[in-house]
Design brief:
single chain; 102 residues; 4-stranded antiparallel beta sheet; 22% helix
Length: 102
């Protein structure tokens, strides 16, 4: 079993995250992937990768998009946003952080 701290380390793979997001997803949730070159304590300007989309049950598509974002922005932090309008909730967490010192 992996901890949240391990999930944010470099080397994110689809095999490490299913237990973390699987329970948060259901069809109709809105998924967004964002990236930023650095995180700051008070304000971090995140940039949207692609378009926000409704989750259709295909977790593999989420991992593919995260991997594509990471391949393009290997030196950026990447986070996943899950919005559930039926419960008026939003869940965000960092799924990739570049190696320390970059």
């Amino acid at each position: 079993m992996h901890t949240d701290a391990q999930s944010a380390k470099p080397g994110f793979t689809a095999h490490r995250m299913p237990g973390h997001i699987g329970n948060c997803l259901h069809p109709g949730c809105v998924i967004g992937i964002e990236h930023t070159p650095r995180m700051a304590p008070r304000f971090t300007p995140w940039r949207l990768w692609g378009q926000r989309s409704c989750y259709n049950g295909d977790e593999g598509r989420i991992y593919t998009e995260i991997d594509r974002c990471r391949a393009t922005h290997a030196d950026h932090h990447i986070r996943l946003n899950i919005e559930d309008f039926s419960c008026h909730s939003r869940f965000s967490f960092v799924v990739y952080s570049p190696a320390a010192g970059t």
